[in-house]
Design brief:
This protein is an all-alpha fold. The protein has a domain of 90 residues: Tetratricopeptide repeat domain (Serine Threonine Protein Phosphatase 5, Tetratricopeptide repeat, Alpha Horseshoe). 79% of the residues lie in helices and 0% in strands. The longest helix has 20 residues. The relative contact order is 0.02.
């Protein structure tokens, strides 16, 4: 039957209305987004899946399945915080979703949120006591809590509940390694391979286990078998190359990398392996050449471009690195890696503030970016903010526990602060990360030398030398150990051995010179410095060491000035040498020249408060109070609680009639920062005196005198004068007379002599 035109129009209108009403139905739209997200997820397009599941949740925020799928997308994208949040919402909406609860518990364990993880595990144990996955998760939790024995027992329960699950044997083997049960661990690694013979991961882990025990032949066999069973995976080849490097078989390692590039020409990790191997070996020129070729062969490979930039930064080729970085940012202005590289270039160029701004933006967008936190720490340290730098390095290390540069820099901070316990801790981490490197053992030895734990230190010194007999690290610490024990001849031989291995070692030269100075052989120390400078003429650090001995020990101001000037000429960023140059000039009476040197030093090192502090001292010596105050205030702007600047500014305010309450606050800050300084205690005591707090003044000034005696500082008539005046005001006339008479005997022409005599006359009347 033929329908009329009118009927067809009516039908079309009804269908349009039907479909229109469907498109307005939120459940239909939600399901469309959900299915689209599923499709993307199955294709491995996790970023697109994240968007679609998010769209579904905008329509229905209480859809538990969408929350769960969004969490799994986040996991694939390595967004752990987002995944944990979505899983928490999933189990809130679906308390019986044990799969999500297990995933949440394991994420909480990884994030060290152990108390929250415990709550989830307790519920799972109650509801599913016979589920092997629950006992596996409990094992992970116990291991994170430090109960390795309990973790092993739980993993054994997991295996008993499901003997065919190879992942459980793998977990058990790793726990047994941690518990020093080597034979049991090896047997379980073999069991994993028996249950899953076509997987490369168990063989890689077993190979790594053998390598850690220097069973190199066994390790090689496992890596070769892993290559056989997983020929398209570059990781077994990379493991084999690393093994050959550990054995010193550099040529064999290169052959493996070249073969990987040939066999897997379309795999980025494979064709980048050779360039990375050159980089690890320190063959930077070869690495640059390899990556230059790769960037031409694979122009669309973003990782090649990023690796190449990092290599160029390492080589100091900033303009080439910048050009590549600009290309990445043109395509994606929000590429976090490229932004971090840009900040590194800015730091190298001295634009620390600009770098900090970029890095803070990166961290705001991606709080888990460990590299951004690390580089931000570098920028903050350049600005003199050591506390801020250390906080960023600790955060970087929390996010990425194997970040060796962060451990190394934190060790440096601990060393600079004299925190030997902290140095010991970070040195131990370095040893854990690089057990075949002498560096960690050397630093741990140094921490024990400084704590006079000589037998313990010697064990690490010998280990450092055994591991790397051609490195200077161990011999420098052997020198430090012998020096601390006053065995100067042995110390000198050790430092010389370090210099023979590394002619650029400032630590070795400093140690050798110190042994001569300790033996009152100052001329030999100077001759040693000059001999090393002849070998390495362009090292500013060596001129710095020479200048120090000439200034401090030889009192040769002209020679010291020339040495420090040469050090600064070779390295304008050596703020320490430029500060010493200004001090030498001040000691020569060339105050104008010293001030000019400080001004130039601030141009080269604008974030170094030492220049402003020295400027303040120079102006103070001229009784130029306004310029002195301005200089100290600038130093405190750079480092708000700098104790030297705080004390000196407080002292100037006393001299110039400044606000006593502000001066007191500054002096208290200085006292917290320099509790063993007699000068700081003296300043604080005199402020108390000026404020009429005479008993507090007596306490602080007596402490100043005690500290001066303890530190073998020269007896200071000013402290005797101030203490005498404080005793007089606090009703202790006999003690007042004793101190004032001693002050006048020491320096009868002191500026305060007339006041002292006047007070003595009052005490006698």
């Amino acid at each position: 039957m033929i329908r009329s035109k009118k009927c067809l129009i009516l039908t079309s209108a009804l269908m349009a209305a039907l479909f229109s009403s469907c498109s307005r139905d939120p459940n239909v739209r939600k399901q469309k987004h959900y299915q689209s997200g599923q499709s993307y997820f199955e294709k491995g397009k996790y970023a697109e899946a994240e968007i679609e599941f998010g769209n579904a949740l905008k329509i229905d925020p209480n859809d538990a399945e969408a929350h769960h799928r969004l969490a799994e997308s986040y996991l694939k994208l390595q967004k752990a915080d987002g995944a944990a949040e979505e899983l928490a919402r999933t189990v809130q909406l679906q308390p019986q979703n044990y799969e999500a609860r297990l995933e949440l518990a394991n994420l909480l364990i990884l994030g060290r949120r152990l108390q929250e993880a415990q709550q989830q595990v307790n519920l799972l144990l109650k509801e599913r006591p016979s589920d092997p996955a629950v006992h596996s998760t409990l094992s992970n939790l116990l291991a994170a809590q430090g109960d390795v024995h309990g973790a092993i027992e739980e993993m054994q329960k997991t295996i008993a509940l499901d003997p065919g699950r190879w992942q459980s044997y793998l977990g058990l083997a790793l726990l047994e390694i941690r518990n020093n049960q080597s034979e049991a661990a090896e047997a379980n690694f073999q069991k994993v391979i028996e249950l899953n013979p076509t997987a490369s991961e168990p063989r890689l882990l077993l190979g790594n286990y053998y390598q850690s025990r220097t069973r190199y032949s066994d390790a090689e066999q496992q890596f070769l078998k892993a290559i056989d069973v997983d020929q398209k995976n570059p990781e077994p080849r990379a493991a084999l190359a690393r093994l050959y490097l550990a054995e010193g078989k550099k040529a064999e390692a290169e052959d493996v990398a070249k073969r990987a590039k040939q066999d897997l020409p379309n795999n980025s990790a494979a064709y980048r392996m050779l360039g990375n191997l050159y980089f690890v070996n320190g063959d930077f020129d070869k690495a640059v050449a390899e990556y230059s070729a790769l960037s031409q062969q694979h122009p669309a490979d973003l990782q090649v471009k990023k690796d190449y930039i990092q290599l160029l930064l390492q080589k100091g080729q900033l303009s080439e690195a910048s050009a590549l970085d600009v290309d990445i940012l043109k395509a994606n202005p929000n590429d976090n890696d490229a932004l971090v590289y840009r900040s590194q270039m800015q730091i190298s160029a001295g634009f620390d503030s600009e770098a900090i701004t970029i890095l803070q933006t990166v961290i705001k967008n991606d709080p888990t970016n460990s590299e951004a936190h690390y580089v931000l720490g570098v920028a903050l340290e350049k600005q003199g903010d050591t506390d801020g730098a250390a906080n960023e390095w600790r955060e970087a290390l929390r996010l990425r526990p194997d970040l060796l540069d962060a451990v190394r820099d934190l060790a440096g901070v601990a060393m600079g602060r004299g925190d030997m316990d902290g140095l010991d801790q970070y040195a131990a981490q370095m040893i854990k990360l690089q057990p075949d490197s002498p560096e960690g053992y050397s630093l741990r030895a140094l921490s024990n030398i400084n704590r006079k734990r000589f037998p313990v230190a010697e064990v690490d010194v010998r280990k450092a030398i055994e591991i790397a007999p051609q490195s200077s690290f161990g011999f420098v610490q052997l020198g430090n150990l012998k020096f601390a024990q006053k065995q100067f001849e042995d110390a000198g031989r050790a430092y010389q051995a370090a210099l023979d291995r590394n002619p650029n070692s400032k630590d070795a030269l400093r140690g050798l010179m110190n042994t001569y100075v300790a033996q009152k052989r100052v001329d030999q120390a100077i001759a040693t410095a000059n001999a090393q400078i002849a070998k390495v003429p362009n090292d500013g650090a060596f001129y710095d060491l020479l200048g120090t001995v000439l200034f401090v020990n030889k009192k040769d101001l002209t020679g010291a000035e020339a040495a420090f000037a040469k050090s600064v000429e070779l390295d304008k960023k050596n703020s320490g040498a430029e500060l010493e140059l200004a001090r030498v000039q001040a000691a020569k009476g060339s105050t104008d020249q010293a001030i000019a040197t400080c001004r130039r030093g601030l141009e080269n090192n604008p974030n170094e408060p030492g220049f402003d502090i020295l400027l303040g001292d120079l102006y103070q010596s001229r009784r130029d109070w306004n310029n002195a105050i301005e200089a100290y205030q600038k130093a405190l702007t750079l480092k708000p609680e700098n104790p030297l600047a705080s004390n000196d500014l407080a002292a100037v305010m006393l001299q110039s009639g400044g606000n006593l309450d502000v001066a007191l606050s500054l002096a208290q800050t200085a006292r917290r920062g320099l509790p063993d300084s007699p000068g700081v205690a003296d300043t604080l005591g005199w402020i108390y005196y000026q404020k009429g707090a005479y008993r507090l003044a007596v306490d602080s000034l007596r402490e100043a005198m005690k500290l001066a005696q303890t530190s073998n500082s020269p007896d200071n008539p000013r402290i005797h004068y101030r203490l005498g005046m404080a005793y007089a005001k606090s009703g202790q006339p006999a003690l007042a007379r004793q101190q004032l008479e001693k002050m006048l005997k020491m320096n009868p022409d002191a500026s305060d002599a007339s006041e002292a005599k006047k007070q003595l006359a009052q005490l006698k009347s």
